[in-house]
């Protein structure tokens, strides 16, 4: 309560907001504390800080970091949606594309927020998918960005409207590029195979796009390099089977 009171009393002071969000981030590591922050109106205070200091990368970074911890608790995800927090995270990432820390923590926030189905839809309705893909294209060699980007896309792909947007905005190529650029990273290949498999679900057009982008060769190489990874093998084999069936039919 002391932190929230200080932040509410000094909304225009960027340093207070940055340090306040940082303190709340540490406090919210504890699940009970994360619940208490929400109950005490903390979500509104955090988002007010971010909205009041959009141009301040440090405030945006700390704001996204505390949202990661708060959104780790399932009961808080609906509140983040209700308070408009999804758009605030996306604004932070759009406004500070050159700041890799904001991108990483923004991805972390989106990943946890997207564990709620309504939140997935909300992210997809706006520019969320474009924000995710832009960050991945901006930092192709950064492993953490590619891992987190694939993780967020995997969550979003469970929504049909999001799948359509991912494909339309070039997401298949972005995912395949991540897999080719980071051939030894198991998480990227696990998530890459999974998200492509979801995108291809009962959709001939999406299967054709994966094939045209060289997806068959990428998947085969992924399965070869990660032969002992059960997730890569499961998702990779499933998608390759679909692609092979589609090729026979076509």
Describe this structure in words.
- It is built from 17 helices and no strands.
- The radius of gyration is 19 Å and the shape is elongated.
- 80% of the residues lie in helices and 0% in strands.
- It has 250 residues and is mostly helical.
- Helix 10 packs antiparallel against helix 11 and helix 14 (186-199) runs parallel beside helix 17.
Low-pLDDT segments:
none
Helix/strand/pairing class, anyone?
Answer: mainly alpha
User: In this structure, how is the largest beta sheet organized?
Assistant: none
Count all strands and give the number. Answer: 0
SS element count, helices: 17
What percent of residues adopt helix (DSSP H or I)? over 70%
C-alpha-based Rg, rounded = 19 Å
Let me know the average pLDDT: 93
This entry's quaternary arrangement is single chain
Q: What percentage of the residues does DSSP assign to strands (E)?
A: under 5%
What order do the helices and strands follow?
HHHHHHHHHHHHHHHHH
Q: Which geometry do the CA atoms define? A: elongated
Tag the structure with descriptive keywords.
single chain, 250 residues, mainly alpha, 17 helices
Please outline what is shown here.
Helices cover 80% and strands 0% of the residues. The protein has 250 residues and is an all-alpha fold. The radius of gyration is 19 Å and the shape is elongated.
Break the fold down into its secondary structure elements and pairings.
Blueprint: H1 2-9, H2 14-27, H3 31-39, H4 42-52, H5 57-71, H6 74-82, H7 85-95, H8 100-113, H9 117-125, H10 128-138, H11 143-156, H12 160-168, H13 171-181, H14 186-199, H15 204-212, H16 215-225, H17 230-249
């Amino acid at each position: 309560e002391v932190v929230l009171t200080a932040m509410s009393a000094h909304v225009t002071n960027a340093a207070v907001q940055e340090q306040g969000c940082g303190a709340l981030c540490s406090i919210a590591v504890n699940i009970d504390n994360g619940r208490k922050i929400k109950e005490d109106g903390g979500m509104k205070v955090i988002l007010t800080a971010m909205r009041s200091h959009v141009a301040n990368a440090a405030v945006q970074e700390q704001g996204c970091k505390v949202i990661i911890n708060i959104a780790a608790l399932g009961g808080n995800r609906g509140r983040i949606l209700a308070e408009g927090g999804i758009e605030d995270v996306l604004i932070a990432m759009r406004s500070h594309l050159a700041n890799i820390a904001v991108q990483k923590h923004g991805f972390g926030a989106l990943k946890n927020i997207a564990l709620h189905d309504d939140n997935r839809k909300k992210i997809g309705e706006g520019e969320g998918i474009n924000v995710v893909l832009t960050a991945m294209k901006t930092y192709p060699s950064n492993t953490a960005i590619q891992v987190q980007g694939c993780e967020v896309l995997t969550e979003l792909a469970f929504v049909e409207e999001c799948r359509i947007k991912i494909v339309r905005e070039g997401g298949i190529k972005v995912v395949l590029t991540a897999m080719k650029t980071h051939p030894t990273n198991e998480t990227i290949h696990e998530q890459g195979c999974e998200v492509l498999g979801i995108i291809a679900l009962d959709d001939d057009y999406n299967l054709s796009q994966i094939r045209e982008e060289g997806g068959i060769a990428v998947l085969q190489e992924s399965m070869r390099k990660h032969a002992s990874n059960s997730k890569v093998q499961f998702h990779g084999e499933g998608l390759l089977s679909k692609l092979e069936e589609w090729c026979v039919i076509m």
